[in-house]
Design a protein that fits this description.
Blueprint (H helix, E strand, L loop, with lengths): L5 H12 L2 E3 L1 E4 L27 H12 L3 E7 L1 H4 L5 H14 L6 E5 L16 H13 L3 E3 L5 E4 L2 H10 L2 E4 H5 L10
Bound molecules: zinc ion.
Zinc ion binds next to loops.
């Protein structure tokens, strides 16, 4: 026979309510967290050996992680759709990026589409990638909910800022962020 312990029920009820509000750093890669070394195609990283995480970006990421925040990379990679680079190569470059960043990314998302031939919802300034990240995070961590008002979007291009606005997340320019401003998640 099992007796129901009222304290246990109380505990269980409290646990149901114990949803953690999570701050997410949505981070652009090229020109924001990664150096762009390729002189042939400026602005993008096209070779594994060219993957370098800027030291200031690493610091910013570490500070965010140490404060309990999650980090998601959001990257437009239209070079795939345009046929300049294969998606397998992008995947290898992203794996190297994760390694260089000491595995601090919870997720790395990229849009491979060429906006000239394949309009999509994932390419920034579209908000398809961050929305996908939010839904994936809630699947992975059922007791967390992404708090957009505590989150941050960092990028170096107008489409990053527009994406942040569409998402309802505070935007900080890559330069300011790397200088150490707004590196920490907000605390309610
Ligand atoms: Zn896309």
């Amino acid at each position: 026979m099992t007796l129901i312990d009222p304290n246990l029920i109380q505990t269980s009820t409290s646990f149901d309510r114990a949803v953690v509000e999570q701050a997410v750093l949505f981070l652009d890669l090229d020109g924001t967290a990664r150096h762009c070394m390729d002189e042939a195609v400026p602005g993008f990283v096209n070779k594994i050996e060219d993957v370098v995480i800027m030291p200031e970006a690493r610091e910013g990421m570490k500070a965010w992680r140490d404060n309990g925040g999650r980090i998601v990379a959001i990257s437009n990679q239209a070079g795939v759709g345009k046929g300049y680079i294969s998606e397998i190569m992008i995947a290898r470059i992203m794996a190297e990026t994760q390694k260089c960043a000491d595995d601090m990314f919870d997720m790395i998302l990229w849009c491979p589409h060429d906006p000239d031939t394949t309009p999509c919802r994932c390419r920034k300034p579209g908000i398809g990638m961050p929305l996908r990240a939010i839904s994936e995070l809630s699947r992975r961590y059922p007791y967390e909910v992404v708090a957009r008002d505590l989150s941050l979007f960092v990028g170096d291009r107008p489409e990053d800022e527009e994406c942040a606005r569409g998402l309802g997340v505070r935007f900080v320019s890559a330069e300011d962020w790397r200088r150490g401003h707004s590196q920490l998640p907000l605390v309610r």
